[in-house]
Amino acid sequence: MLTHLLADRQEREVISERARADRVEKIVADVESRYTNAKAKLQKEIEDLQSSRDEAVKLGKEKEDAMVQLKVTHTGELDRMKKTHDFDQALWRKRINGERTLRDALIVSCAQAGQDMMALQEYADELEATNNALKEGMSDKYLDGFTLAVEQFRVVFPDLDPELVSQIDVMKKVDGGKLVSRVMSAVSHSASAPSEAAV
């Protein structure tokens, strides 16, 4: 009875650990998805930044060329154009700096997501190790309980033939009033299943 209760408790613990492991796997998948999305967004921002920089250089060159031409004909217009040019340059610089800041923030976010993912993977590995340890513990306790039951059986029935008692094994089951190997029974069932399907 105690062995059954212990086995039942350990089985519930294993089920609980498996559920926790499943939750961790879902969290890892979510973090990987967020990491992929953040990486794609960062790549787009970098491309936009490069495009903006190229556009700024092109506009600057065009304005400089226009200013040279206007300098010859319109001195007053030149001052106005220079001010506009300076304003546009400052605006572009501000925009580029803002995009760089955003890029840096996305890089930090991606790095943090990677660290979180690694931490979750380590936690999942720990849960798996705990789960395996629980399974091994359950197997050991099951075997210990079986051995204890056989020893008690020998004490309660000391007159029984020792050869018959020695046939009792944890890997056997009762089938048709006889002790048969569980392994052989499983092999014969799996071998007969395809032939039955063929019929």
UniProtKB/TrEMBL annotation:
Q: Which UniProt keywords apply?
A: Coiled coil
- Coiled-coil spans in chain: 21-59
The protein's name in its UniProt record = Uncharacterized protein
The organism is: Trifolium subterraneum
